[in-house]
Write a structure and sequence with these properties.
The chain is of the alpha/beta class. It has two domains: about 10-130 and about 300-330, Alpha-Beta Complex (Quinone Oxidoreductase, Chain A, domain 1); about 135-270, Rossmann fold. Helices cover about 25% and strands about 20% of the residues. The strands form three sheets. Strands 3, 4, 5, 6, 7, 14 and 15 form a seven-stranded mixed beta sheet that branches. The two termini are about 25 Å apart.
């Protein structure tokens, strides 16, 4: 019988605004399962702070999915296989894997839901796989193609991943709009060709000059801010397309404007969960690791802050109060947590 002396721990939200690290029991490893020791997990800043502070309408999908105490607080982590079930023959102890799991020191989960991390991949960079998958949905919905152009509104973590997919797919004009100069610099390092700093409503004259003064025919709104919805429609060129990627907690505040009809716009919503045309979690993960390995997806310097899980409350306070000065907030689970 395999024994595991270290007590598993995880980050939870006991009540709105409260964050703590607690012990928790792991299930037994089933035939198709693997047990994983987490090394690093990456915060999904926008989604997790929305959940932590209950910033969503009572009839939204956030309200249907989350309640307090909230025990699932993250969605992306990497670790090492410690044990496998008899049927989980794809992995062996010592293998490095990516998983869509919450912030916790250990996990037991079906092997088929994990992805192998190729040799040579920086494990901290591998943590971006989850947000890269979310952004890949926008690339598919927007049909990113070599030589094309796009305006990405919002240069937060998800927007940064959209920028990098656009660059990896060879788009010639990648414009990014955000109120944060620091975030725009991150976008530039990821392949953005045009930086637009300021409130989106005040940027419309400059946006109209994009695409050889025809305006953007493709826009990705990654903000999750309902106030951006109408200005984004106003920014689109005639017969253009807007991909709605940001996941707001208040969809009832996203109201259509006459631009949708008068310009003949196409509005396409896409979500992390939308597996279409064979692009499953595992397939997107493989694509991400390939472009990362090929140096076509730049993630250098994207981890802006690192925390021990014991300091999880401090990490979420930073994410809440210093949003414009954060990018990747990483939890390092590689050391001992038993003190």
């Amino acid at each position: 019988m395999i024994t595991h002396p270290e007590q598993p721990k995880r980050i939870i939200f006991p009540s709105p605004g409260e964050v703590t690290l607690v012990d928790y029991p792991l299930p037994q490893v089933g035939p198709g399962d693997i047990r994983i020791k987490t090394l690093y997990s990456l915060m999904s800043i926008g989604t997790e702070t929305t959940i932590l502070h209950g910033r969503y309408a009572p009839d939204s999908h956030f309200a249907r999915m989350f309640s307090f105490p909230q025990l699932q607080t993250g969605v992306q982590a990497v670790g090492i296989v410690e044990e496998r079930g008899d049927d989980a023959t794809e992995f062996n102890p010592g293998d490095q894997v990516y998983m869509r799991m919450a912030h916790g020191s250990h996990q037991v989960m079906p092997a088929e839901q994990c992805s192998p991390i190729p040799d040579g991949i920086d494990l901290k960079q591998a943590c971006w796989c989850g947000l890269a998958k979310t952004a890949f949905r926008a690339a598919c919905a927007g049909d990113f193609s070599e030589g094309d152009h796009v305006l990405i509104i919002g240069a937060g973590p998800v927007g940064q991943m959209v920028v990098r997919w656009a660059a990896a797919m060879g788009m010639s004009e990648i414009a990014v709009a955000d109120i944060s100069a620091q975030r725009l610099e991150y976008a530039k390092s990821g392949g953005a060709t045009t930086l637009l700093g300021g409130d989106i409503t005040k940027l419309l004259p400059r946006i109209a000059l994009l695409n050889k003064s025809r305006g953007p025919e493709l826009i990705v709104d990654s903000t999750g801010n309902p106030a951006v919805f109408q200005p984004a429609l106003a920014a689109a060129a005639k017969f253009g397309k807007m991909v709605l990627l940001g996941d707001t907690g208040f969809p009832n505040r996203q109201c259509l404007s006459s631009d949708l009809m008068t310009k003949g716009l196409t509005l396409q919503a896409t979500h992390d969960s939308h597996d279409r045309d064979g692009w499953t979690q595992r397939k997107v993960d493989e694509r991400f690791f390939q472009v990362l390995s090929d140096k076509r997806f730049s993630l250098e310097g994207m981890i802006s802050h690192e925390f021990s899980p014991q300091h999880c409350a401090e990490a979420y306070t930073l994410a809440e109060q210093q949003r414009q000065h954060t990018m990747g907030i990483l939890f390092d689970w590689s050391g001992s947590l038993d003190h």
